[in-house]
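Quick check before the chapter quiz. The format below is the same one you will see on the exam, so make sure you can read both the input and the output lines.
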Amino acid sequence: MRILFAVIRVAVAVAIVAAIVAQLNQSVSNWLAGGVTNLAISFTNFFSFFTIESNVGTVVVCLIGAFFLLTRKGAADPAWFNGFRAAIATYMIVTGVVYNLLLRNVELPQGTTVPWSNEVLHVIAPLWMLLDWLLVSGRLALAWKSIWFIVIFPLVWGIYTLIRGPITPDEMQGNSYWYPYPFLNPNLSPNGYLSVAFYIILIAVVIGLTAAGVVWVSRRKKPVTAE
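Here is the expected output.
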């Protein structure tokens, strides 16, 4: 089973890389066709999506995790990797939930999406990280205080997004601002930052509860693939 899950982890990592490259290639074509002149800003925008960053983290987890499965038979994962794996699992589960509940039918500002890439990044990869955390061996019990560690990155990302958004031009739309997701854009709601604050609080609660679930699983449920 360890070999099987190692192979699946590598396959998921390859699929995610292919999906990101495919979407980036499509986005670059859209930017050039739309007359974008500052590709550096557009590239930065692309990699400022929480989805992209979480999926990049998933690639790292899957590849390192596959290596550990093949080389650390019968041994638990290192504590640093256990915490990192828990954090990425949390982010990907939240990514899947938020996208499929709020954003599935909304065109995001990276340009026209590649359908199969979209499904890999927002459905297949989040689902795998959930199953990975539940089923794959190596997991250690996490302290409840680990929740604070897990929520640090989303908090930093949110601050970065709200600071950068008003000062980043969007050449594709002709706006003087750019936000990765509509619910973070105060210009799209008559309530402005009040609406943004509501969604930030809502997502913070979802991330916190998901992190608590991830920690709970680590403390209560043993993986079924110990060997």
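If your answer matched, good. The chain has one domain: 2-220.
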